[in-house]
Amino acid sequence: MQARVGVSGVLLAGGRSRRLGTDKSTIPWPPAAPGSTAAGSPGGTLLEATGATLAQVCDEVLVVAYRGDRPLPHRIVPDLYEAGGSRGGVYSGLAAAAGEYALAVATDMPFLSLPLLRWMLAQPRTYEALVPVREAPEPLHAIYARSCLEPMRRRLDRGRLKITGLFEDVRVQYVDADTLAAHDPQGLSFFNINTPEDLVRARLIAAARSG
Question: Residue 142's closest CA among 89, 71, 197?
Fold first, then answer.
């Protein structure tokens, strides 16, 4: 099942990675095999790997607020609200998208599930936001319609940066835990790398999968 025409992938790359202590976009990925002296295979980064996953299901990939020097095979767009957090990044990507809908994810999500993404993209577009829910909504693994731009902008202009607040203003369809588990049994789609401990765990998971 392929993504429908009109969906852009938005990859947020503007985080400061304060807890991790290094720029997430530059992390070598996939990680080297245990015992290897190589940095990764073959010199790719976490951002590039996440972008490659999006490229398999979206018509285009936009990288928001990329600060690196490595050339990317995707369109790079500026963050229109540099102090706007993840909501500002989603707004900036959605505003620049060619399609009517955008699938937004963060750079540090190395285990995105293609079956889950394809299922989400195949749903009838009767929503303005299609949002997975586990213990709480997952706004950085969600699909947004262009009609979300105006309510996003209003909240950003008022300094209301919590991205889930948007869901009070738009027509939301939530994806429940049972559906998520059917398409991503391990639940790793929502794993992200915020701390050095998370990075260690991510490398162990990747090694187990490749082995």
Answer: 89
* Across 81-90, 97-106, 107-116, least confident range: 81-90
Domain ranges, ordered by start, for the chain: 7-210
7-210: CATH superfamily: Spore Coat Polysaccharide Biosynthesis Protein SpsA; Chain A (3.90.550.10)
pTM assigned to the model:
0.91
Helix (H, G, I), strand (E, B) or coil at 42: coil
| Paired tokens of 100 | 């009517």
Residues 10-21: what's their mean pLDDT? Answer: 80
Whole-number Å distance between alpha carbons of 47 and 70: 11
For 138-178, how does the pLDDT look when each residue is reduced to its tens digit (9 = 90+)? 999 999 999 999 999 999 999 888 888 999 999 999 999 99
* Contact in structure between 138 and 84 (CB atoms under 8 Å): no
How many angstroms separate the CA atoms of 24 and 17, rounded?
A: 6
